[in-house]
Write a structure and sequence with these properties.
A hairpin with a 2-residue loop joins strand 1 and strand 2. Strands 5, 6, 7, 8, 9, 10, 11, 12, 13 and 14 form a 10-stranded mixed beta sheet that branches. Helix 7 crosses helix 9. By secondary structure, the protein is of the alpha+beta class. It has 9 helices and 14 strands. The protein folds into 2 domains: 94 residues, D-amino Acid Aminotransferase, Chain A, domain 1 (2-Layer Sandwich), CATH 3.30.470.10; 153 residues, Alpha-Beta Barrel (D-amino Acid Aminotransferase, Chain A, domain 2). Helices cover 32% and strands 29% of the residues.
């Protein structure tokens, strides 16, 4: 096996100047690879980092890695850094570092999906939220707060608005309608699939700013993410959502998503 090397003057390492993306396989195929690739390109564009390959080349490498690793279900992480900088500070095109990691997918406990999880809110404004950048200092540091509160996720709030979770998007259910944030967040691929499924099944959906107080008056709440699929939330800041149990709309979305994945 060839050795993996990262130059010590790579500004992805020195300055955190890098982007990444994460997708998983469903039925042993990359789930929504085109959408993930486009988001990856958009993230690189936000930072002004040039891409090293095209979509076709990327797909071939991913398929080769999946075939070689032979996991029943995989997580695929793609990383692009600003590369080597002569002064350790400015981005210089042509020196980028690009790599793909494939690892075994590890599922969350079944109980999380059957009985729901607890989350907390935290005042935090993620830098450049529209891009998936590797700087997760805040998110990692905040995990101590999450663990202390015995929660499984954090929903970021800012100026009275609920934005997104640390590694997920979220939906609230109110009077039979799905509501999710649109601005100031990283638009998730699974989030978009949920919206697509909802529209196909005549479920009302609204994309808009969400006030923090709406979280606590929601009938139901759930997360969406590549590594979580649809995960129900039954408690926020130690307060019950609805009756404190997984709601009927959430169960329906979970089933519709599972059916969608089976046919993918």
């Amino acid at each position: 096996m060839n050795k993996v090397k990262v130059h010590p003057y790579d500004i992805g390492l020195l300055r955190g100047y890098a982007v990444f993306d994460v997708m998983c396989t469903q039925n042993q195929k990359p789930f929504y690879l085109e959408a993930h690739w486009q988001r990856f390109k958009n993230s690189a564009r936000e930072l002004g980092i040039k891409m090293k390959m095209n979509n076709r080349e990327y797909r071939k490498i991913v398929e080769r890695l999946l075939k070689r690793n032979k996991y029943k279900k995989s997580i695929i992480r793609t990383v692009l850094t600003g590369g080597i900088s002569n002064n350790g500070f400015t981005y210089q095109p042509g020196n980028e570092t690009f790599y793909i990691l494939v690892e075994k997918f590890i599922s969350y406990p079944r109980d999380f999906y059957e009985n729901g999880i607890g989350v907390i809110t935290l005042e935090y404004d993620r830098f450049c939220p529209q891009a998936k950048i590797t700087n997760y200092v805040g998110a990692i540091k905040n995990q101590k707060i999450r663990e202390k509160n015995k929660a499984e996720e954090i929903i970021y709030i800012k100026n009275g608005k609920a934005l997104e979770a640390s590694t997920s998007n979220f939906f609230l259910v109110k009077n039979g309608k799905l509501i999710t944030t649109k601005d100031g967040i990283l638009i998730g691929i699974t989030r978009n699939v949920v919206i697509k499924i909802a529209k196909q099944n005549k479920i009302k959906i609204e994309e808009r700013n969400i006030k923090v107080k709406e979280l606590f008056t929601a009938d139901e709440l759930f997360l969406s993410a590549t590594n979580k699929d649809i995960m129900p939330v039954v408690k926020i800041d130690s307060k019950k959502i609805g009756n404190g149990k997984v709601g009927e709309m959430t169960k329906r979305i979970m089933q519709l998503f599972a059916d969608f994945v089976k046919k993918y």
